[in-house]
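Because discrete structure vocabularies remain unfamiliar, we reproduce here a specimen of the format, pairing a chain with its fold in token form:
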Amino acid sequence: MAEIYITSQELIKTLKISSQELVDIETFFDAHSEDEWELVKGKDYRITVRATGLREYTATGAYTIAKYLEATRKPGFGTFSKNGFCTLSVRFVEHSFASTFLITALL
């Protein structure tokens, strides 16, 4: 079965973050390869527009970003509380992947 990807725009919408926040997270992950937060090209994401570095994410990549946001956001910051952020985000990410999979299967 082919790998299913979620676009950067879908991930931004799902996690309720700005495009700049996603770029900042990507930059942080790329600059700190020896810490606990890592995204592996080819496993967690792929580059879709080489000139801009635009990415699409696998389920593991999207989940890693959601976990990073849960761990680094201050209580009360953003749309979700710290306790509920990851659970809700992961559910939305899973829903996005399920929708993408169904559309792909129907085509």
User: Anything to note?
Assistant: Residues 82-106 form the longest helix (25 residues). Residues 76-85 have pLDDT under 50 and may be disordered.
